[in-house]
Amino acid sequence: MAGRTMTALALGQILNDDGAETFRGELLSAHAVRCDNLWQANATVYSDGAAEIEILCSLNTDTGRWDAEVYYYSFDRAVSALREYEATGNIPEGE
């Protein structure tokens, strides 16, 4: 992911429609999106418009590694999963 622009979202920003639109737009622009050490999202968008969205959760600052990695194939599903994760601390199983 070297050279990819990182866009920061504040905790709770993904919970509103403006934050969700920022998330989608940045991923579609080949940027990574990160919420502090809570989560980071990256997307691969294919020529047919399909997307694979990788979400990394809970950065372990001692090791520099993320504790969980899940994949979604819909921006709506990824936003829904992040909303649940921020609200409950549990990331739904990927697709």
Question: Would you mind describing this structure in some detail?
Answer:
- The protein has 95 residues and is of the alpha+beta class.
- 27% of the residues lie in helices and 34% in strands.
- Strands 1-2-3-4-5 form a five-stranded mixed beta sheet, covered by helices on one side.
- The mean pLDDT is 93.
Number of strand segments: 5
The number of helices is 2
Distance between the termini: 22 Å
Question: What portion of residues is helical?
Answer: 25-40%
What's this, in brief?
It contains 2 helices and 5 strands. With 95 residues, the protein is α+β, with helices and mostly antiparallel strands.
Brief descriptors of the model:
95 residues; alpha+beta; 5-stranded mixed β-sheet; 2 helices; 5 strands; 27% helix; 34% strand
Q: Secondary-structure map with pairings?
A:
Elements: E1 6-8, H1 17-28, E2 32-35, E3 39-45, E4 51-60, E5 65-72, H2 75-88
Parallel strand pairs: 1-2
Antiparallel strand pairs: 2-3, 3-4, 4-5
